[in-house]
Amino acid sequence: MAYVAAHNIFSPLGTTSAAVFAAVAAGRSAVAEHAGIFPGDGPVWASRMPEGWMQALPELNGTFSPFELLLIASIRGATAQTALALEAERTIFVFATTKGNIGLLDENPEVSAALVAKLSLAASARAVARYFGNANTPVVVSNACTSGVAALLVAQRLLASGQYDTAVVAGADTVSRFVLSGFQAFQALSTGRCRPFSADRDGINLGEAAATIVLTAQPPAAAVATVRLASGAISNDANHISGPSRTGAELARAIGQALAAAGLTAAEVDFISAHGTATPYNDAMEASAFALSGVQTKPVHSVKGALGHTLGAAGLVESVLSVLALTEGCLLPTVGYSQPMQPTPLQIATAARPAALRVGLKTASGFGGCNGALVFARV
Q1: pLDDT value for 371
Q2: Which of 181, 216, 251 is the last residue of a domain?
Q3: Are residues 269 and 306 in the same domain?
Q4: Among 7, 275, 301, 330, the one annotated catalytic
Q5: Are 260 and 346 in a shared domain?
Q6: 192 and 326: one domain?
Q7: Mean pLDDT value of segment 150-164
Q8: Mean pLDDT value across residues 48-70
Q9: What span, in angstroms and rounded, lies between the C-alpha atoms of 375 and 302?
Q10: How many structural domains does the chain have?
Q11: Residue 12 backbone phi and psi in degrees, to 5
Q12: Which of 8, 271, 314, 323 has its CA 20 to 30 A from that of 78?
């Protein structure tokens, strides 16, 4: 068990958790058509940070990469809410990302030893942790699109072990030519704004963002409404390098294990923050998993239509929104949803509405067959 002491989302929809939550609740989307993100490319629907966003950190420009600046901006936004000593020996930094500084290849086509060093996820993690004065060796979790969820679970376990009192969990990814070309090769990009869990869904929108959750071993003293990360679990399909399980049994196993570890039943879940990428295979797999684990009738939302797929940051972005859904008592809508999918329709939330919420389930899946499930509960 761990407690949420602070959080932040730094994204195209806003640079505070509250601003992003309000935008998603209002049905707004940062996903738009971008013509020629990279030279020679055609138009792409994506959610991108606005021009000049790095000017918010002028003293750090030239010292850190855009990926690292996203992490720093989000950690600043989260920890400004607290009196926690980030340099403390019993504070650990845990970072989540899929590709880190891979965007540097867009600006440096000639691969050098210096560039290779900058592409190291561990190097970025150390640089960001040192910026905040923390001398501990940070932990990096890079497990495809479950990275954010897995990082939170790793942090919870580090706190439970008694090694640390506080964990700063931050994740980020940017839209790069490397990532874009990969999804283009898979023919997995939507031709418009994505439509999670809809019968006519046709693929993802990429997005860039950062998010941070500060977890503590003890309840934060100043909290008005305390939310705990009650438990979590991960599993693997062992099915295909990119295609998810066809049955959903493996994600269902992670959901069942997470609920059991929290001492909860499927009936006690109040809502599901799904991965919901809007690809045909992912959404069908998740729907099957929800049915197998007994939560099929619960309200489900995906925020990919609002923020795009932010890769390693997604699990953290969506966990912050889940925490706010619990504290604000508000179900979030699925931006872009159009019509029920078959053969396993879900109870998709289509508009924000007040609700008495105590338990939220967050799921994630990614390439390599990885799955994750977290249970958040209001204390």
Answers
A1: 97
A2: 216
A3: yes
A4: 275
A5: yes
A6: no
A7: 98
A8: 90
A9: 16
A10: 2
A11: -65, -20
A12: 271
The yes-or-no answer on residue 309 being catalytic is yes
222: in domain = no
Burial 321-338 (b: 16+ CB within 10 A, else e): bbbbbbbbbbbbbbbbbe
The answer, yes or no, to whether residue 128 has pLDDT greater than 90, is yes
**Residues in Cβ contact with 28 at an 8 Å cutoff, skipping those fewer than 6 apart:** 13, 306, 335
292 domain residue, yes or no:
yes
Q: 3-class secondary structure for 121-159?
A: HHHHHHHHHHHCCCCCCCEEECCHHHHHHHHHHHHHHHH
Q: Which of 194, 309, 330, 370 is labelled catalytic?
A: 309
Q: Please say if 145 is a catalytic residue.
A: yes
**Location of structure tokens 């999918």:** 341
- Tell me the chain's radius of gyration from C-alpha atoms: 19
Report the alpha-carbon distance of residue 76 to residue 132 in Å, rounded. 9
Phi-psi region of 278 (alpha: psi -120 to 50; beta: other; left: phi over 0): left
Q: Which of 163, 196, 216 is the last residue of a domain?
A: 216
The candidate with the shortest Cα–Cα distance to 128, out of 182, 80, 161, 168, is: 168
